[in-house]
Design goal:
Layout lengths: L3 H9 L13 H7 L5 E2 L23 E2 L1 H9 L10
Parallel strand pairs: 1-2
Amino acid sequence: MLSQPLIITLYQGVKVLGCVNRLELLWNEFDNHGYMTLYAEDHPTTNTFNERFHGFEIPPTAHYMRPFWLAAEHSKQSHCLGMM
């Protein structure tokens, strides 16, 4: 079974050897038309573009949640974040 990242690169005909900022992803079109964009996944350590690729050099969307969730996961505070 092909993974989503592999399907994306095969579809676009791009061989990704590092960060994936150069891929033409749908949220780039929305950003070009003035929309605010957000990219977040369920778990910060295993997500689509960091599992087999090197992630993003620059944030891919206006609101990119991975840095926040990585920091929250390593935070010693247990207010409303992490495991309950």
